[in-house]
């Protein structure tokens, strides 16, 4: 009489193993997007927190100095906005004491050129968006001939000098921050809730720094920007303008535009201290013109359709 085999003592058959592998693959396929979504949600929240802290620091600076800091400080007359930016310290350096970075700020003499101080190589998490892709240490910022002007830490944020009509290297701007600007909140007659101060500008697209605009330095595309021949003069290292958002087809590579690696848009800090997410704008249309309007401090425009 034959003995009955106990299947519990046997391993999986090939078909059973393939079925299990297929089920695990399906589950992983369903789980991975959810994990990525949670991770990006956390990164976006941290970015919002960074910008809110920056906004609070800007407001505290204004309370003490009766104006916002300059986009960047240049002590000499305007010539070309590229080689005449010295000492070049930018808005993000001026607010360091209000971001619990007083010890770092004390290392700098704001009357001397940016490149004289190794402290500008300090990596600051407050100026780095978690969704961005940036180097782990300070990087070389070159001039137009490829010679290093300064070694400086990266930044994921830039301040708005105005709409498209305001170039980052202009002597003045229609926005809040520009060369030697000293904008007061009272000057923002468009309303602080309708005027952009600072926002995402991904280092992976535009290799900005937080320290300022060293004379003769150039900003070049980041590793994710395919427009390798594009460049901006020194003020572009700390300034952007309200033109497009996350554009990948602009002739200048979108270097002077806001950008991020959040899904579908950027976080922007407004003058009232609020942070809003605005979806990508890559073509002309009413949203584009509205976004221009959000760049002016006293343009008198009416926002018609942009949702923020």
Account of the protein in words:
The protein is an alpha+beta fold and 308 residues long. The chain has one domain. The chain is 22% helix and 15% strand. The longest helix has 52 residues, at 14-65. The model is unreliable at 1-9 (pLDDT under 50).
Give me some keywords for this one.
alpha+beta, 4 helices, 308 residues, two-stranded antiparallel sheet, 15% strand
Strand elements, count: 11
Mean residue pLDDT: 92
* Poorly predicted parts: 1-9
Order of helices and strands: HEEHHEEEEEEEEEH
Annotate the secondary structure layout.
Elements: H1 14-65, E1 72-74, E2 87-90, H2 91-94, H3 102-105, E3 139-142, E4 148-152, E5 157-163, E6 196-200, E7 218-219, E8 232-233, E9 239-242, E10 265-270, E11 275-279, H4 286-293
Parallel strand pairs: 5-9
Antiparallel strand pairs: 1-2, 3-4, 5-6, 6-10, 7-8, 10-11
In short:
The protein is of the alpha+beta class.
